[in-house]
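Justification of resources, computational component.

The compute hours requested in this renewal are based largely on the per-chain cost of generating structure records like the one below. Each record pairs the submitted sequence with a full structure-token output. That output is archived, and it is also reused by downstream analysis tasks.
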Amino acid sequence: MLAIGTTAFKKLRRLSDVPVVYVMAVLAEADRDLPQNISGVTMEIQPAAYFAAMKQVFPTAKRIGLLYDPHNTETFVQEATRDARVAGLVLSDRKLPDPAGLAASLNSMRDTIDILWILPDTTVATPETIDYLLRFSIQNNIPLFTFSKKYVDMGAIASLDVDPYDMGTQAADIANKLAAGGKGPVREYARKTRLSINRKAANKMGIQIDDETARRVDHAD
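The structure output for this chain reads:
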């Protein structure tokens, strides 16, 4: 059985007697305790890939601010903390179980971070909070690094997106492996990414994106 998207995955994850492969499911669902018959590709990127992209765009930045809801992304943030240390970065995270605490959480890290990193966390990233996050970024000259190019178009400095087409191929690879007798479950992050940069917004913050970096990204305004 193939589950495409979070809604379908929530329904099919209840099955225990047939193999299920999911794709484009949010990490908050794919990260929960799952039976052994469930495999797939989460709609998320490995933390180390995010940090590599951040170092490419902001080579002098060291301190990364992160807001997250433990109910959604606790395991991911634990992995990100380890990967940040390996990358020579400092991850300053704040738990945000309720969007009402957004302003206080941001103010608590305002003077201690070089980049504000936003995950596809349904508590942190909503239409209302994104507007506030963008204003915070501009007012405090702290670049916003997100998970979607649409926020780059709105004023974020950079984003690292998944490639939906490749995720389908990745899910098919998992299904073929299991069908051939491979051991499961197989649960993976999206393997192919697309980096976007808003050079105009970066210039307004005094951040210089060199031409070589701009040529290597998938999209640079």
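The longest strand covers residues 38-45. The mean pLDDT is 90.
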